[in-house]
Design a protein that fits this description.
Layout lengths: L1 H41 L1 H4 L6 H5 L1 H10 L24 H14 L1 H24 L1 H7 L7 E5 L34 E5 L9 H7 L4 E6 L1 H15 L8 E2 L17 E6 L4 E7 L5 E4 L9 E4 L5 H6 L5 E4 L7 H7 L1 E5 L2 E2 L3 H4 L1 H19 L7 E5 L26 E2 L7 H7 L5 E3 L2 H5 L5 E3 L11 E5 L4 H10 L3
Parallel strand pairs: 3-6, 3-9, 8-10, 9-12, 12-14
Antiparallel strand pairs: 1-2, 1-13, 4-5, 5-6, 7-8, 10-11, 15-16
Bound molecules: 2-acetamido-2-deoxy-beta-D-glucopyranose (2 copies).
The site of one 2-acetamido-2-deoxy-beta-D-glucopyranose has 4 residues, from helix 13.
Amino acid sequence: MKGGGGGGGGYLYNKHGLKMKQLSLFFIIFVCASLVLWNWDKTPHLTALLPPDDQPLHLFPVEVERKQDTRVKPEAEQAPPSLSTDFNTPQTSHLENTKLLVDNSISEPKDLSETAKQQSVTSQRTESTVIDTPMAKAETKACNFGKGKWVPADNRPLYSGFGCKQWLSGMWACRLTQRTDFGYEKLKWQPKDCKMDDFTGAEFLKRMQDKTLAFVGDSLGRQQFQSLMCMVTGGEEMPDVEDVGKDFGLAKAQGSARPDGWAYRFPTTNTTILYYWSASLCDIEPIDPTSETTDYAMHLDRPPAFLKHFLDRIHVLVLNTGHHWNRGKLNANRWVMYVGGKPNTNRRIADIGGAKNFTIHSVVRWVNAELPKHPGLKAFLRSISPRHFFNGEWNTGGTCDSTSPGSLEVLQDESSDPVAASAVKGTDVKLLDITGLSLVREEGHISRYSIRAAPGMQDCLHWCLPGVPDTWNEVLFAQI
Ligand SMILES: *[C@@H]1O[C@H](CO)[C@@H](O)[C@H](O)[C@H]1NC(C)=O
Ligand SMILES: *[C@@H]1O[C@H](CO)[C@@H](O)[C@H](O)[C@H]1NC(C)=O
């Protein structure tokens, strides 16, 4: 029994002993193997041979996300045709942008690791450039006025919103409304890497002696025009400033609510500032001039006729477009897309975003080709002015109630308007890049105080004046 028991016990013991020994052996091998691998991993020259798989996971989603987050989404196609002149399809809110982005970064790890590799290559190059030729780098790097921060400033605004009655539309003068918060008037833009002289009307007029500055674009261009008139005059009444609209064919046509633009001349320096309404920056022509109900050809590949006529007389040109590129507006205006003098058949252009991109590229290319013939001309494409409809669209209760900026800083290098940036790339037309710096100023819109908006509707597209568009002019002033 004992033996049997012992034998049994011994057997069991031996069996267990064997098992334990095997397990111990496995364990020791496992630990050794782990140590070897761990050391391998820690050895830099070995790791360097391995693909940097882990990098994108830790570093780049954050990078990519921050960059894309502030980009303005291409405008959506759908908008009801009933809307009046200036409200239309709002951009998707920031929150939705962010969400889209997160989805992207999760579903496209391959792209991210590609980006990672490219970026590490770029940063290596940059480093070696810095070490080898620091001066060369400083010289070639153009100043980026779009990167910087908003700072409180006692000497802002540059004119009073109670004044400037001669130029400022009542609907944009928020001081004349029920609004009670005016912190948005007291911020000044400070570019990070460049000096920006303070704007003065006298200095502006001096630089623009015997010259003409023209804004050509939509109602956001008109805001910039009114802003500049107020900045130059300091908001003071100036009876000697001449209305020279007639010189530029800008007379109010019979039956229309307003002329196609305005032009004013400052007699002391013979400086003209004008605005011409061209919402799409292309040539618009009645298809049947004899018919009152004609459709209009929207020649996407031709500049506005006004520009062709008057470019000779313009010294600083500021173009803008963006908020009229939606089906609702096109249908309401009875605009039909034409390319090459014929109705467009190209499906890529037929898409609203494609048409806008095509038109912006076309007009910039045209202006660029004209530059050699006009040596005194400086041409700018102003990037898109962002809108801020939260919790809805312009017509579904979207609001912009905030009384403080979303952020005070813009850190990214690239423009938040990729369409405009790509259009000027490789040309001598400059980008007046105001998208990013305006994107953080959600509190600067007219909001619920618009006297134009129907009850319950807010204007989160146009800006209070004085306000954000003044800064666009300061940034412009720094570049002329
Ligand atoms: C005013 O400036 C224009 C150019 O913009 C020039 O053609 C014109 O001769 C100037 N007028 C005077 C009186 O100097
Ligand atoms: C915009 O238009 C340009 C010129 O027609 C073209 O090269 C580019 O690919 C277009 N970009 C987009 C996003 O459609």
